Amino acid sequence: MVIEILIIIILTSFVQSFFGTGVLLFGTPLLLIFGYDFFTTLSILLPTSILISLSQIFKNFQFLNNELVRLTIVYSVPTIIFFLFLTSFISINTKFFLGLFLILISTKDSFLLLKNIFKYILKYKKLYFTIMGIVHGLTNSGGAMLSAVVFEKNISKISKRTSIAFCYLIFALFQIITLFFVYDLGSIVIEHLYMYWFIGQLIYVLSNKYLFMKVDEKKYSLLSRLFLFLVGIVLIIDHFNG
């Protein structure tokens, strides 16, 4: 196994195990920095993300937010497919603006104006989820926008994580289907790829049992805002590195 991939899988799987997203969000820019192409990166990360999402959903279907699922399928999936296909021809970087958006969202509770602006944005849910699909298709970072809207809902931490995981699973499945038509599957040259997927699942089992289930709702809410802030910083840094 390649040591940098192993470290990235461990760290990002831990984040996704706690928040419902993270493997694609953090793993994609990190692997690209290490020189892996976009398809090889997705080949490592997508199955890892899918397995963790399935585990988070298992036995938790009653906590799903049906509105989020409907909006994701109807408005995000078509644009994910189209813009992921488009990445084989063009490259568009939206990470700076997305990063800035997340930083503002994570700090909005301290500023009434920002809080009111975000409430106004969420009135246009169809447009928001359409843009989220575009961002995810182009950069693999749509999970950040998904987390931003889910963390704002007045629901339990299990409902938040389950809803994010389910929508994120939809993202990943349609990405894999699209990749079958866009890329040559024979281009994967990394050996023992399945071991990274297994390690991601192991990280989920351990972190879910010894961390997630022991954190109360208030702390989870605070950690969620910190998570969005850090994601914003990472995306802005990645924008300038790219």
Question: How would you characterize this protein structure?
Answer:
This protein is an all-alpha fold and 242 residues long. The chain contains 11 helices and no strands. The radius of gyration is 17 Å and the shape is globular.
In short:
The protein is built from eleven helices and no strands. It is mainly alpha-helical and 242 residues long.
Number of helices: 11
Strand content: under 5%
| DSSP E strands, number | 0
For the termini, the CA-CA separation is 26 Å
Q: Which runs of at least 5 residues are low in confidence (pLDDT < 50)?
A: none
Rounded mean pLDDT score: 86
For the largest beta-sheet, the strand count, sense and barrel status come to: none
Radius of gyration: 17 Å
SSE map:
Layout: H1 3-19, H2 23-33, H3 38-57, H4 66-86, H5 95-106, H6 112-121, H7 125-139, H8 142-151, H9 157-182, H10 193-210, H11 217-241
Helix pairs in contact: 1-2, 1-3, 1-10, 2-3, 2-11, 3-9, 3-10, 4-7, 4-9, 5-11, 7-8, 8-9, 8-11
List descriptors.
242 residues, mainly alpha, 11 helices, 76% helix, 0% strand
